Amino acid sequence: MLPSRIHPGRFLSAAPLRRPTRGAAAAAGEPARGPGTARAEQAHKVVASYKPSKFDKKILLWTGRFKTEEEIPLRIPPEMLDRARNKARVKACYIMIGLSIVACFAVIASAKKAAARHESLTSWNMAKKAKWRKEAAIAAESKAK
Hints:
The protein is an all-alpha fold. It has 6 helices and no strands.
């Protein structure tokens, strides 16, 4: 027995019940909206509603959206700033990747030079511990007197 919420005819019907999309309504010759909705949407839609800060202007310049700071309008669309921020984020990531690779090669080169001088972290650690033991022994002798 099926629960009361499930109707077998709904699952067994040949065509599913769907609302027509805007494209289907326009293709059928029906208006997709009422006559006053286009005007109401335009009244609420603000094209350039964001005033960029100095940092935002630097991002817009760095990403190549504008050539000079004077070209940047007083108000810009938020989508433009979002795209510029995303592009700046990607550029910064590429720069960090490049710097990480350069740093890896620098560490490898310095480690090879240290190995040629027969220096290692183990020898440094043993020398440091020997120095501490010597200082502790001197401190114990001074307390004993």
